[in-house]
Amino acid sequence: MEASKNLKTPPKFINDDGVSQECENLISSLPSEKNFTGIKLYNYQGSWYYPNTVQAILNFQKHFRAQDTDIILASLPKSGTTWLKALAFAVVHRNKYAPNLVSHPLLSDNPHNLVQFLEADLYVKNQRPDLEELPTPRLFATHMPFQTIHESLRDSPCKVVYVCRNIKDVLVSHWHFRNKLVRKDLHSNYSLDDTVDEYIKGAYAFGPFQDQVLSYWKESLVNPTHVLFMRYEEMVEKPEAQVMRLADFLGCSFTEEEKQSGTVEKILELCSIGNLSNLEANKSGTSSCGIAHQAFFRKGGVGDWKNHLTDDMARKLDEMVEKKLEGSGLKFE
Ligand code: A3P
Q1: What domains does the chain contain, in order, with CATH numbers?
Q2: Is 212 in the pocket of ligand 1 (CB under 6 A)?
């Protein structure tokens, strides 16, 4: 009952109630688009945002400076962010918190509270959040494209992990997610047709998909010790190999002894959608960005788009992505 009430709480980054004069001036000069519910989004540095997010990004860009040991988990919403947050937290802190199903921070708190978003949590309505208390290595998350975080990470050997997922599953997941959040008393449901139109147009929060994916892909090629490019589909198909790849990249490879004693499997079990979605901590409550924990868990897996999108919708989306990625070496399916 409490959880379903929480689902109707609008996320705080959608509002425009915490915007400074400086940000208002900037926003008035940016290209804007209304989404089909009439909410305005603004294009800043190639990506679309609600006003509060633009403010948070300005705060971040002015004040955040990466420490050498920082880890930034990046993604487009609905690409596997929650899973990556859980896995990275469990991997990085495994000496402090042994992965098990008895006592671990992930059993009593949602991954989004353990690893907070720079622009949707920490820098929303806060110019200088206190990041000193965070344990080392500090783990952050973002939905911003690489060009927008780049300057704040310059000259730092910090690590960026990007997770992407095929656009059709992202879209379907997003459509379900927004219908869970929408206040039925204020708005009608988001239709799938509207969501497809939005993705084709590109003007949705943190979109367009293909531009963001490309920004991290290119950087991962140029600077592979700085940016790791992961795919949700590969994580589903070969979870052990991908978690070991993640640990190697983060400089905390699994020892032979850990591999023999099943540490990798224990982390995967702890972070599995089956385990996380059934925890009381994830069935109730709201993350600091204002979204009910349970909204982050649905089906998981690969290919649910086939149950929702028409052939024509799928073709249009694929063609759009292929066109943008042409010559980049990045391919989906
Ligand atoms: P579906 O809606 O396709 O089920 P994000 O975390 O970026 O918001 O992405 C949410 C998507 O990841 C949802 O996909 C959700 O079910 C899935 N997901 C959440 N936790 C997961 C986990 N631990 N393992 C695999 N998938 C997970």
Answers
A1: 2-325 (3.40.50.300)
A2: no
